[in-house]
Amino acid sequence: MKKKLLLEQLAALKTEYASLLEVTPEDAVSHLAAVDAKEADIKAKTEELSAVEALEAKAKANATREPARVISDNEAKSPWNNFGEQLSAIAFAQSPAGSFGGKGGRVDKRLFETTLAATGGNTTVPADGGFLIGTEFSTALLSKSREMAKILPLCKEIPIGAGSDSIELPFVDETSRATGSRWGGIRVYRAGEAEAPTASKPTINRHELKLETLKGLAYATERQLRNGSAYSTILEDGFSSEFAFTIDNEIWRGTGVGQCLGFATQAHEGTALMVSVAKKVSQTAATFVIENATSMLSRLRAVPGSNPAWLLNRDCVGQLPLMTVGQMPVFLPNGNAAGQPYFGTLFGYPVIIVEQAETLGTAGDVVLADMSQYAVITQGGGLRSAQSMHFRFIYDEMTFKWSYDINGMATIKKPITPFKGSNTLSPFVTTAVRA
After folding, report:
1. pLDDT above 90 for 182
2. I need a surface site. Which of 1, 234, 277, 395 has the fewest CB within 10 A?
3. Whole-angstrom Cα distance, residue 147 to residue 149?
């Protein structure tokens, strides 16, 4: 279209130029200036047309070059030795011929097998230069993230189908155990013969929980991709650790806006979900003592069959062996800490050291939590992966991206008032500041 327009414009200029030469002007000086101006217009348009034709010739020459060649069929039958090997193969396949020390432009047939065998919502077209990261590698990355996470595995996980991006979580709207309030309004009555009891029903409410996407992005230089095995270890360990840390941190203190709503930040009608017990009178600053632990136990609302845990900052570990009732220790260290996810037990509940807890003496340094009352939704397909050679092309870098759809929130709105007494109960309990 550009060339056609230039040809039409050039033809019109030449016609106008010829007309100028046929006229005998009254003012020869001004007419000569008009002729010179028209000649300059014709020269500029001719140069522009030549540039367009030169670009067309280069494009035509490039189209006739030898296409990227597919290497031996035998390689298609071999599994990838590691994650980095596949990343390197993707980079070679998507790069110009001759780059990467002569490896550029070579397509490993295993890339086609990976693409055809891949499942989930992320699809690419091999003919356009795009290949999926192997499903086994994305699954391994996700599995390692779960292993590294400390809080996520304790939560109630609810996978949802690929055709949905949200879920409604029904819950009993119970905020008090007083008669007439249990289960949101259920009551039973003593009644004489032929006397009908008053009808009652539970109050059921719903939380809507929508999936939000957590993303990881990495760039790989030509030098890094040459050493695929070492770089794959960095990617797997680094991104697994960061996915795990970020999700745990959101479960603890997330804002609920585009991310999980943390149990430490969740509130309803101005009442925080996590309750805080008072410190011991005249308690020494920056300590956690047995009176703190017993007070927290008295405020815990645990559901039958659950296994609450003490989530604490490493700064607090030195306080635990000092706790006794008389001569009886209440903390039992784990004899095989390296092989277990927990450090020991306090009053029979596991002690788990987490980075997300506050430092010793601050509210939130130790949290007694029943994480079965925190729901996490995930997309069934797990991690999605994508890659591009174009975004950082001028820097000789490939771009790799991972996306994980996940969200979470507690399944109750606020602490519950017990049948007797005024101290509310919650699945999440901590101790007030000890400063």
Report:
1. no
2. 1
3. 6
Over the stretch 257-315, which tens digit does the pLDDT of each residue have? 999 999 999 998 899 999 999 999 999 999 999 999 999 999 999 988 899 999 999 99
For residue 73, is it within any domain?
no
Whether pTM > 0.85 for this model: the answer is: no
Of the candidates 195, 167, 171, the one whose C-alpha atom is nearest the C-alpha of residue 183 is 171
Q: Which two tokens stand for residue 295?
A: 């007070």
> For 334-345, what is the mean pLDDT?
70
**Could you report the per-residue pLDDT of 228-238, keeping only the tens digit for each?**
666 666 777 78
Q: Distance between CA atoms of 50 and 3, rounded to whole angstroms?
A: 9
Q: Identify whether the C-beta of residue 239 lies closer than 8 Å to the C-beta of residue 219.
A: no
Asked if residue 69 is part of any domain, the answer here is: no
Residue 303 included in any domain = yes
Distance CA 248, CA 266 (A): 15
- How far apart CA 417 and CA 420 sit, in angstroms, is 8
d(CA 260, CA 375): 10
Please give the residue range of the domain that contains residue 50. 1-19+36-60
Output the DSSP codes for 385-400.
EEEESSTTGGGTEEEE
